[in-house]
Amino acid sequence: MTDEMVRAENVHKSFGSLEVLKGIDLVVRPGEVCCVLGPSGSGKSTFLRCINHLEKINAGRIFVDGDLIGYRERGGKLHELKEKEVAAQRRAIGMVFQRFNLFPHMTVLQNVMEAPCRVKRENKNEVRDRAAALLDRVGLADKIDGYPSQLSGGQQQRVAIARALAMRPKLMLFDEPTSALDPELVGEVLDVMKDLARDGMTMVVVTHEIGFAREVGDSLIFMDGGVVVEQGPPREVIGNPQQERTQAFLSKVL
Ligand code: ADP
Ligand code: MG
């Protein structure tokens, strides 16, 4: 393990002529929670997707736990990794989306067991034990034989978190994990994330939950227009934003 779980250097990403990321730099150390704030369209999701190579970047470099993502450096040149090698890198990174996308025809337990059994071909009994323990941890021990449609949005999102954890990721990416939830269900998902953070998981969390960012975040970046406008300890950035754009955004969400 390096002392940097995520390192982004001058990351650029365009879709056609639209430049969405205009040189993002970021370091997240092991065990840290980095919260990402910013208005809609500022490139937050795109940046997360670049970290686990769901999007290819146009320039710059991203490392996860010291590994260059998507490329190999040889003789000063970057060569794209093969699909299999990218898949291996991706397995170490868990991602949780706004929409939970559980498999509707599988039970809760099967949903959590699916990736380790199919992708990693792990021993089924071991995976079952681990999946059950994870579901217990997210407070859903009594739901393991239920189906996603029988669960509330908050419960489904907790299953999605357990499902990501079942792959034993070293890094978890959250893209607005509570934005699709009814307000009364937000807390139970944030509590699970808090518990994960306390347990030492490295997390990058795109969220509009300012309270969570202030309480749980070790660092905060504010993005707008594809650049990091401001960053620092969450309490400082939220309590005393230095940039006009940060002030304007916070005054709307606080
Ligand atoms: P955020 O998550 O901060 O709301 P996004 O990263 O989703 O922002 O999007 C940033 C910009 O990139 C938006 O203008 C969006 O329309 C554009 N964008 C995102 N994904 C694609 C894509 N696959 N093709 C074209 N444009 C995209
Ligand atoms: Mg987004």
What are the defining features of this structure?
single chain, 254 residues, alpha/beta, six-stranded mixed beta sheet, four-stranded antiparallel beta sheet, binds adenosine-5'-diphosphate, binds magnesium ion
Which small molecules are bound?
adenosine-5'-diphosphate, magnesium ion
Tally of strands: 12
Q: What is the distance, rounded to the nearest whole angstrom, between the alpha carbons of the first and last residues? A: 37 Å
Strand content: 25-35%
Shape: globular
Helix content: 25-40%
Radius of gyration: 18 Å
Determine the mean pLDDT.
96
Instruction: List the total number of helices.
Output: 9
Helix-strand makeup class: alpha/beta
Write out the strand line-up for the largest beta sheet, numbering strands in chain order.
Answer: 8-9-10-3-11-12
Note the main sheet: 6 strands, mixed
Instruction: Give me the strand/helix succession.
Output: EEEHEEEEHEHHHEHEHEEHH
**Low-confidence residue ranges:** none
Protein name: ABC-type polar-amino-acid transporter
Catalytic activity: a polar amino acid(out) + ATP + H2O = a polar amino acid(in) + ADP + phosphate + H(+)
Enzyme class: translocase
Keywords: ATP-binding, Nucleotide-binding, Transport
